[in-house]
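Hey, quick one: can you model this chain's 3D structure?
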Amino acid sequence: MIKIKRRTKRYLIISGMIAAVIILAVLIVHGVGSLVRGDTDTSAGLEYIKQEESGSVAEIEAKINLLEKQDGEEGEDTRSIREKFNGAVVVGDSIAQGFTEFDVLNTSSVVSKIGVHLYELDDLISQVKEISPGTVFLAMGMNDLSATEGNVDEFISQYTEVLNKVAEEVPDANVFVNSIFPAQENAIEDDPYLEHISEYNTALKELCDSRGIGFIDNTNLVEDKYYEEDGLHFKADFYPLWAEHMAEVAAL
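Sure thing. Here's the predicted structure for all 252 residues.
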């Protein structure tokens, strides 16, 4: 949208300038003709106007290009991912814990616990309350597919309680919910309930939509090369991609 607006602005300025010069030329020619008796050679005047018009267009083009270049440089976000997550916290399980294990985010930006379930998040939410972040990213649910034995309604009920608790403890925070990451085939063979991840994500998105909460779809973010051998967890080079994806969605 920004580029379109700039291009439109450029055309409007140049078109307006050209129209003004043409009108000026007409007025000069007709004015000279009405004030001076006899035939008057206006070719020199018109040639001068053309030269001025060409020079003005080039000059305005150059100024516009300079302003756009400066605006682009000033608008470029050069902050590190750690800086973007200042004032934000990712809450989750062992997958979220990778942010600190691989030194991608500051420890103050991650509140996590290995193997945690939705029904046992009180301690983590209390930690979030102490930090008092402006943005909270919830990243959990993988452990709850088997815990709820494929019961999507039970999963949504538990997630609703978590959202209520977060709203109560950090009411001023903007909350975003990460989708559950896909599991690879070897992980699904070990835990057949993981086969229902897509179904759980659909219900989770509907819950977020009903509450006006941002839902971050990670389904197409991962590739086979990012998975650890267990088919669930991720290698170090995946975490910057995930963090940037969350930052983009949340406009950090």
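One thing worth noting: The mean pLDDT is 82.
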